[in-house]
């Protein structure tokens, strides 16, 4: 598809979008009705950035099918520019099914051979893509896009190694099943080339063999490393030191998508050049909003709430509790 360029494109997110089908409680074999929504890591981040007022583009490939049309409509309604999306007449839009049983969610992915998996280095040369990248101040992607196909990994390697004027942000999003029987070397190279790396302490232990922030910082070599320790804390390591902010107390409904929301909040704060502690607070706030919703994304807290909590004392921050809207 081709659409006019937005006036500005402060942030560009590159990666796969998926249709999420969520069933009611119980085993998948017994579910008769599913609720449809849009998911996918970079897609979630794009929507989160736009919701926080950042002019944002999402770039990818979708199938020429009803699911792909729904993804485009959904993102456009959330204020995301989708003019750089390419529609594939042959390959389908990916999807996944969420099974909820005994209070736990399990994901079943159907993405092999998807339109997004056909992204390759030449995809970056499409005028609608190259011009949006040229305008960007920040480009965000994840390890998932590096994993879905060798051609998409090569695309990201080109993106990371060619001269660039934007900040490159990469969220590890380690998915062992996607890397089964694959060499993770391209992912290591992508992380080492990034300006900003976001990583969960738990996934770091599996992927890198350590969750120690200092060791991770040395091994990854990122200028800015964000280490998220689930419901406990988030820490930023930079050449001139570290900043740590505890997570908020949250009544959790569903955890899927919270990491993407944190990324959207932190990257928004980065583009706004907020003090580092406020960038981490904004990440926690946007993550909390998703943690209290059943979907993969949710509106961020109201501007007045964000403003108050970004500037409150540490004691007031620690006493804040977030519940479902």
Counting helices, strands and paired strands, the structural category is: alpha/beta
The tally of helices reads 13
Tell me how many strands there are.
16
Name the helicity range.
25-40%
Give the rounded overall mean pLDDT: 92
**Could you give the order of the helices and strands?**
EEEHEEHEEEHEHHEHHEHHEEEEHHHHE
Beta percentage is 15-25%
What distance separates the N and C termini?
Answer: 36 Å
Give the overall form: globular
Major pleated sheet: 8 strands, mixed
From the alpha-carbon coordinates, what is the Rg to the nearest angstrom?
19 Å
Strand order of the largest sheet: 4-1-9-10-11-12-13-14
**Low-pLDDT runs:** 1-5
What does this structure look like?
This protein has 13 helices and 16 strands. The protein is of the alpha/beta class. The strands form four sheets. It has an eight-stranded mixed β-sheet, sandwiched between helices. It has a four-stranded mixed β-sheet with strand order 3-2-7-8. A two-stranded parallel sheet has the order 5-6. A hairpin with a 2-residue loop joins β13 and β14 (241-246). α10 runs antiparallel to α11 and α11 (276-291) packs across α12 (303-311). It is globular, with a radius of gyration of 19 Å. Residues 1-5 have low confidence and may be disordered.
